[in-house]
């Protein structure tokens, strides 16, 4: 086969023809483009995976809010899928939990019935994680065998699978931090666990958008709006990650007033730890203030972005996405304030976390549409 001496990769404009023969050798039999039937099937599969990851993040939030995350003190990725099936097994699992710092320092005196109520949340969270791996791997192998994936898509999906495996390991690494002396998981590890979940979700979602919108339109001169959309996405992501520190320190249970923190605008004792950078990640008052500030700045950035988009000559999908982005941002701000004022009830806390994911989804969709026009 003869390859052209010069090829342009998208809009980058460098010679990439020398990479194509190697790609064809490493992915023999896979087409450059897949047909419409295969594209719909793969898109449906990725949409299911994204939905399950969305549910996983929400269930993880509920597990944390109900104080259930440390109820399973062992990690068994193979046989751990089977829960206790009789009273003797329940007693054995409960006996191991009674040796944990959480039982001895927080839940001392809890009976077996109370233990079961927290165990099932953590068990469901882990089971859903395993299910996501299965739902991803089996169809992936099927699509590979039937050559229904393009050459470009195969390595990207392999990378996503590796990230999923790392997420499972990181989840256990997070839980271990609360099983030693202090019965609370590290806010650093919890935030890393959340951030990796967001990365996997956004990565698969971008691949899904590529499948749903395969046709590129002529590139329009909206470089400023593209940069602005990327900035909004960055602000949304940063605000969600800062929420991980709020969750890890249970900072939402402090200063349950708005817009002030108690009687002050700035966090009381907000710079008491040394060295100073520790306050950004370990001081309850400062961590809550940072999340408030980032949420406010994110909302302002969404509002400004919407104001400029509404008069721009953009594709209808991008403009509708901007309207939806503003609507979700308003709802998310309202949920956040209500969650704070009501001392973080489980239902509102989970809804606030879900709202953050919806906001991230819409922001990512807008970025995809602007990058493809």
| Beta strand count | 0
Provide the low-confidence segments as ranges: 1-25
The computed structural class is mainly alpha
Amino-to-carboxy terminus distance? 33 Å
Question: Could you please describe the fold and organization of this structure?
Answer:
The protein has 373 residues and is an all-alpha fold. It folds into two domains: 34-214, no CATH class; 224-373, no CATH class. It has twelve helices and no strands. The protein has helices at 20-26, 36-65, 87-98, 101-105, 112-145, 153-176, 187-212, 223-249, 279-282, 284-309, 316-341, 346-371. Helix 2 (36-65) runs antiparallel to helix 5 and helix 7 (187-212) crosses helix 12. The two termini are 33 Å apart.
Set out the fold topology.
Blueprint: H1 20-26, H2 36-65, H3 87-98, H4 101-105, H5 112-145, H6 153-176, H7 187-212, H8 223-249, H9 279-282, H10 284-309, H11 316-341, H12 346-371
In a nutshell, what does this entry contain?
This protein is mostly helical.
Search tags:
373 residues, mainly alpha, 2 domains, flat
